[in-house]
Amino acid sequence: MKNSGKAVKSSIISSVSVTVNIALNAVFIFGLFGLPEMGIAGAALATVTARMMEVVWCVFETAGKDAVKLHVRYLCYHEKSLSRDFWKYTSPVLGNEMVWGIGFTMYSVIMGHLGTDAVAANSIANIVKNLTACFCLGLGSGGGILVGNELGAGRLNEAKDYGGRLCRMAVVWGGISGLALLAISPLILAVTELSAQA
């Protein structure tokens, strides 16, 4: 949906899904409104329910008159030259994501062996990092849409121009996010209950 001119609608669907997930987490984990306390199983149920709602909403959106239609035959369509180009350009991205996935998994395993203090400190650091990095992630996603649309329209020079601007913006906003993270670190430590080691 993001690449078909419906970025706002896509953002609304994602935001509602996250909000529903948070609300259902509270309900199912702690047993609100007379429901039984489910703990971690409640968290899983809340996530699956919110994601199912998101998928159903997206499917209904594709059924609209001016929407890009989802057809199974397009998913199964095979053309040799397209497949070759697809794997040529996506293999480096796939390799990158696999390395990142393995790295972050091992990172969690190592932290788990360092003890509860390390796990607690790492959890809080990750939450704060994700909050400060969300703008940069949004910038990257939006930039991908802009550059992708220009490339798809065959406007290579405009795509290069957008790409250059986005690279410069990424450096600037990365620095600003880093400074913001340093600035709020004392506040985060003040509102969390950690051991001296953590």
Shape: globular
* Total beta strands: 0
Helix fraction, binned, reads over 70%
Our count of domains comes out at 3
Run of helices and strands: HHHHHH
Please provide a written account of the structure.
The protein has 198 residues and is an all-alpha fold. The protein folds into 3 domains: 1-77, no CATH class; 79-114; 116-198. 80% of the residues lie in helices and 0% in strands. It is built from 6 helices and no strands. The mean pLDDT is 84.
Ordered list of secondary-structure elements with their pairings:
Elements: H1 7-30, H2 40-62, H3 72-75, H4 80-114, H5 116-152, H6 156-191
How would you summarize this macromolecular structure in one to three sentences?
This protein is mostly helical and about 200 residues long.
Characteristics of this structure?
80% helix; 198 residues; 6 helices; single chain; mainly alpha
